[in-house]
Specification:
Elements lengths: L1 H24 L6 H14 L1 H8 L2 H6 L1 H6 L1 E3 H21 L3 H21 L1 E3 L1 H9 L1
Parallel strand pairs: 1-2
Length: 133
């Protein structure tokens, strides 16, 4: 049973990794949220796959600074906030339960606060230096 769960995590990790990689090339798909889910899944699925993922350019460009410094570029923050807010708004509109709607509003408030005040914003000059390497 444990191997099946690990296999599911690895499969989900690769699906999100592919979507994140596509998001790096296509402006319609967000990159960072999918890569964050990939990191979570790979860490739960396999140490070897997790090490491979952490050595990829996608990880280093989009997640490494967040993991080590708790900071993100403004563009990354905006992409994550827009994507997550869109999903929560869809859930809010689809839900008829008052308590569920209140929970979603509280979750959106916390998410916005956390991204604005708890995660540092890196300067654009740092982003340019990173893309040149």
């Amino acid at each position: 049973m444990k191997k099946i769960v690990k296999g599911i995590f690895i499969a989900l990790g690769f699906i999100c990794f592919v979507l994140g990689a596509a998001g790096a090339a296509l402006p319609v798909l967000p990159t960072t949220p999918f890569l964050l889910v990939s990191a979570f899944c790979f860490a739960r699925g396999s140490e070897r796959v997790n090490q491979w993922f952490r050595s990829t350019k996608l990880y280093k460009k989009h997640l490494d600074s967040f993991v080590h410094e708790r900071s993100m570029f403004l563009k990354t923050k905006v992409c994550i906030l827009v994507f997550a807010s869109t999903m929560l708004i869809i859930a809010f509109l689809a839900m008829q339960n008052l308590y569920g709607r209140i929970f979603i509003v509280l979750l959106m408030t916390f998410k916005t606060y956390y991204f604005l005040f708890r995660i540092k914003t890196k300067k654009p000059a740092e982003e340019e230096a990173l893309t040149e390497n």
